[in-house]
């Protein structure tokens, strides 16, 4: 079965591509068309998603050119690997690539190897440039938000276990992500539990009962002593002259009731719902303070390689508590000095990004761009501060080099 895919710009006519696919034997009903902007590499491609979902054993995805299938070489290689894993083949009319043949599979494999060579060449040149700059006494990248003395102090506070991460971050005026990046990776998640303070008990009071009967029994006895006629008499429900019954609304009790209703509403709004255990490992701290701290930890997004076999080269977004956080981490922070938004790379993504002269993976850059992040002259900026720093003309350009002068 042949499946055709067409990708055109908003002002481009898809007719020539459709005609070429029909001439190659693809039915019109099996041709899927996407309209995307050339500069927007992160634009959704619903037609391509349908093609990938329907591709399987015995199917051949047919396109007119490689640049119609993916916005770059790396996504193209990943897409080809995904099709091969699903048992589908790829045919590119203009470039003469057909993976149903040995030569076609060799061409696609050569393309992947050339892409790897190109990236290694860029990385080698970048590392050489950084080494030369360091030899001249220059240090690239943004200035650190914490001094070595502050980092040592923060590590000491964390190891003591007396303060939470939020409290330590507030002491030094940084965010949780920045603090995570400066802590010793071997100690994160292994510190002792914070000790609970012993509550101060109220002074003991001694009550002396002077009556002989319990209050409930006295009430019953007093009620029994009242004549039924007196209970039924209307005079017993009439307040004395000059007094107002508390059941009659007045300005004072109206205001008191309104204030009480307002306070009840605020208590309902501020009511704390116990959070669920960690979605990654199922850890439950077992007490309210620990659950609150874990709830704050789970708000951080961890970008990690997809461990599944059906998405090679993919990425997942995970949420971890301190018990299951990856030991390899690379925080991505906003360039605005008053902001600390940003995800944390974990696993192999963190190892690759932390290498000297390394680049952010394209999938990470796409994830940031989809959430409004922009690459400015000051560095990566979140959506809340992009306008303040001035956005670049292309919302999703090539991945920036970390630490490049």
From TrEMBL:
One GO molecular-function entry: DNA binding
Protein origin, superkingdom: Bacteria
Family: Belongs to the site-specific recombinase resolvase family.
Native organism: Nocardia veterana
Keywords, alphabetical: DNA recombination, DNA-binding
Name the UniProt record assigns to this protein: Recombinase family protein
InterPro entries registered for this protein in UniProt: Homeodomain-like_sf, Resolv_N, Resolvase-like_N_sf, Resolvase_HTH_dom, SSR_resolvase
Resolvase/invertase-type recombinase catalytic domain residues: 1-137
């Amino acid at each position: 079965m042949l499946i055709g895919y067409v990708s055109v710009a908003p002002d481009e006519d898809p007719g020539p591509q459709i005609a070429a696919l029909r001439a190659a034997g693809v039915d019109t009903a099996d041709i899927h068309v996407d309209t995307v902007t050339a500069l927007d590499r992160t634009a959704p491609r619903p037609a391509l998603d349908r093609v990938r979902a329907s591709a399987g054993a015995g199917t051949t995805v047919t396109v007119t050119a490689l640049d119609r299938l993916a916005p770059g070489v790396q996504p193209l290689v990943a897409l080809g690997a995904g099709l091969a894993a699903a048992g589908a083949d790829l045919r590119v009319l203009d470039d003469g690539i057909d993976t149903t043949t040995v030569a076609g599979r060799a061409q696609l494999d050569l393309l992947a190897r050339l892409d790897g060579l190109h990236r290694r060449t860029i990385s080698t040149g970048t590392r050489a440039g950084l080494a030369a700059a360091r030899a001249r006494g220059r240090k690239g990248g943004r200035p650190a938000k914490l001094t070595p003395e502050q980092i040592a102090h923060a590590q000491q506070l964390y190891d003591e276990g007396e303060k939470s991460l939020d409290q330590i971050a507030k002491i030094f005026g940084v965010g949780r992500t920045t603090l995570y990046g400066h802590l010793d990776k071997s100690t994160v998640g292994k510190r002792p539990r914070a000790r609970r303070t012993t509550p101060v008990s109220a002074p003991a009071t001694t009550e002396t009962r002077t009556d002989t009967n319990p209050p409930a029994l006295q009430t019953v006895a007093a009620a029994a002593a009242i004549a039924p006629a007196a209970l039924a008499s209307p005079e017993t429900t009439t307040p004395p002259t000059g007094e107002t019954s508390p059941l009659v609304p007045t300005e004072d009790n109206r205001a008191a009731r309104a204030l009480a209703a307002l306070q009840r509403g605020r208590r309902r709004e501020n009511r704390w719902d116990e959070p669920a255990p960690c979605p990654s490992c199922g850890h439950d701290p077992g007490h309210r303070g620990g659950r609150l701290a874990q709830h704050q930890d789970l708000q951080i997004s961890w970008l990690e390689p997809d461990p599944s076999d059906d998405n090679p080269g993919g990425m997942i977004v995970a949420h971890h508590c301190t018990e299951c956080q990856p030991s390899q981490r690379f925080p991505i922070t906003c360039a605005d000095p008053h902001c600390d938004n940003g995800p944390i790379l974990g696993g192999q993504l963190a190892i690759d990004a932390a290498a000297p002269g390394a680049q952010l993976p394209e999938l990470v850059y796409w994830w940031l761009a989809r959430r409004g992040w922009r690459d400015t002259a000051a560095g990566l900026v979140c959506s809340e501060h992009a306008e303040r720093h001035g956005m670049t003309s292309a919302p999703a350009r090539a991945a920036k080099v970390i630490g490049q002068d």
